[in-house]
């Protein structure tokens, strides 16, 4: 067997966690190889082409470039500049017939909440607390790359790295968002519905399940700089890819990892490409950007048993139904690019338990994504993977019903959509997503937040097997482009510490 030993680090999967770790390591002098099974890099943070249009993998926003945030750190350390344009306001939320605008300016946002939800004193107190916690969480997260701590020395480092005056924030690891809402007297049905739906797209859980320590950042992300990448998120990934190439590294698409074998302090990674050709690579360092649920299927022996044990408590995770729609551009000039549309009370998207849909639109002037006079829309809603895998003969009919329902709701709720003509439409379910990004059962968005899971119970970046690391949304700190970028930075820090 011919084994390639040219690389210092092998990274399985090219999501933003793996790309961030790869860029940081390449910048530090490591020769990096990233292996991606799909035809395009980026995983859930990517774009795809369909009938002359460019769609995002899912409806999504992009933050993380402000000071003390992960993409700011990535650019600062490497010199990479990800092409982007700030958008403001970043988002509208449609509650019944009412539009709630998610302003970046903090005072303007608090006034908007007072207008919509009333209780001026309670709303101000709640949002000031959330913003203070969020600001501190971002700052502290970058200062503590060895979190959650796994060794005595890392516990000691926590004490050294952190200001004792910041310890007040830790109490919110044990208080839910619901608890804080009740403390400030803002837990009304209308505000609870708003908060629950915001948390579902940022934490994969609702107010009673989400610790305020995480929920604060999830609720306030629109109060930081939000960005749009011209041409689609794939351009962000390709910018990082080009940097890794400049540093002697490589990214192979259409070449998936089939098995990771451990041999002493070396790992052999076996792959297969789309032409069924097989390759093997050996390195002392392997970073897996593959979800923890998938890992037992590509490992053996005690490594396999470790991942079986590590993932057994995390089988309840969300999938997504996504639609890509290209339409004529009949939208108002002042319409934001992102929208969360709440369904009527008691209504859900067919064949899901989801009572909202999230919409991201291409910019009018972005003719790389849509021809002039047209726009692309990406729509996402939560769905149970297990349900969609059980449909069998009813699958296509259910998929069609969801598509028709979403189109009808967009016509009712999204200004300008009813006047547009649809040129392209396609719908993806969790089954599609597994075939697309190879995540087990099409689970996307990481592991839902839970009050029952302490900060120390997150799947760690460093495994018990020297040289094998994990990155991505099923490790700390979880989902979202900033979250997985932070996990990439943390893995980089562990590799530098352990292998220099």
Automatic annotation (TrEMBL):
Name of one Pfam family that matches: Amino_oxidase
Classification via SUPFAM superfamilies: FAD/NAD(P)-binding domain (SSF51905)
Gene Ontology MF terms in the entry: oxidoreductase activity
Domain Amine oxidase: 16-491
TM region positions: none
InterPro entries according to UniProt: Amino_oxidase, CrtISO-like, FAD/NAD-bd_sf
Gene Ontology process terms (BP): carotenoid metabolic process
PANTHER family, per the entry: PROLYCOPENE ISOMERASE, CHLOROPLASTIC (PTHR46313:SF3), PTHR46313
Name by which UniProt lists this protein: NAD(P)/FAD-dependent oxidoreductase
Native organism: Gracilimonas sediminicola
Upper classification of the organism: Bacteria, Pseudomonadati, Balneolota, Balneolia, Balneolales
């Amino acid at each position: 067997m011919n084994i390639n030993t040219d690389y210092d680090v092998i990274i399985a999967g090219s999501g933003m966690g793996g790309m961030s770790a790869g860029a940081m390591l390449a910048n530090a002098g490591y020769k990096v190889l990233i292996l991606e099974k799909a035809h395009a890099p980026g995983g859930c943070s990517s774009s795809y082409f369909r009938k002359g249009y460019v769609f995002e993998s899912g409806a999504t926003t992009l933050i993380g470039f402000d000071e003390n945030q992960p993409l700011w750190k990535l650019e600062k350390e490497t010199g990479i500049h990800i092409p982007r344009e700030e958008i403001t306001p970043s988002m509208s939320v449609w509650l019944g017939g009412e539009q709630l605008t998610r302003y970046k300016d903090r005072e303007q946002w608090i006034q908007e909440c007072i207008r919509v939800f009333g209780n001026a004193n309670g709303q101000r107190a709640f949002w000031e607390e959330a913003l203070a916690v969020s600001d501190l969480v971002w700052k502290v997260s970058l200062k503590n790359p060895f979190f959650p701590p796994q060794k005595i020395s890392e516990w000691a480092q926590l004490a050294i790295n952190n200001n004792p005056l910041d310890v007040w924030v830790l109490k919110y690891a044990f208080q839910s968002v619901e608890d804080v809402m009740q403390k400030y007297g803002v837990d009304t049905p209308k505000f609870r519905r708003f908060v629950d739906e915001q948390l579902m797209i940022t934490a994969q859980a609702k107010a009673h399940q989400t610790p305020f320590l995480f929920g604060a950042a999830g609720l306030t992300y629109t109060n930081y700089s939000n960005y749009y990448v011209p041409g689609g998120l794939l351009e962000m990934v390709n910018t990082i890819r080009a940097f890794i190439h400049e540093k002697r590294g490589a990214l192979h698409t259409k070449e998936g990892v089939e098995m990771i074998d451990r041999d002493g302090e070396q790992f052999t990674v076996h792959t297969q490409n789309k032409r069924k050709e097989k390759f093997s690579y050996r390195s002392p360092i392997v970073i897996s950007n593959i979800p923890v649920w998938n890992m037992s299927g590509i490992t053996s022996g005690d490594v396999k048993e470790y991942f079986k044990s590590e993932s057994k408590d995390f089988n309840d995770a969300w999938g997504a139904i996504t639609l890509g729609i290209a339409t004529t551009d009949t939208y108002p000039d002042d319409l934001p690019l992102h929208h969360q549309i709440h369904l009527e009370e008691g209504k859900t998207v067919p064949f899901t338990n989801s009572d909202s849909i999230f919409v991201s639109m291409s910019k009018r002037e972005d003719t790389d994504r849509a021809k002039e006079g047209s726009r692309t829309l990406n729509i996402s809603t939560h769905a149970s993977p297990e349900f969609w895998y059980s449909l069998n003969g009813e699958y296509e009919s259910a998929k069609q019903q969801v598509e028709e329902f979403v189109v009808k709701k967009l016509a009712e709720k999204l200004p300008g959509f009813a006047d547009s003509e649809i040129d392209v439409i396609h719908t993806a379910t969790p089954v599609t997503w597994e075939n697309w990004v190879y995540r087990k059962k099409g689970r996307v968005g990481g592991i839902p937040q839970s009050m029952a899971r302490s900060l120390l119970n997150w799947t760690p970046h460093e495994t018990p097997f020297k040289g094998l690391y994990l990155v991505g949304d099923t490790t700390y700190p979880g989902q979202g482009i900033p979250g997985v970028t932070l996990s990439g930075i943390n893995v980089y820090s562990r590799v530098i510490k352990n292998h220099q």
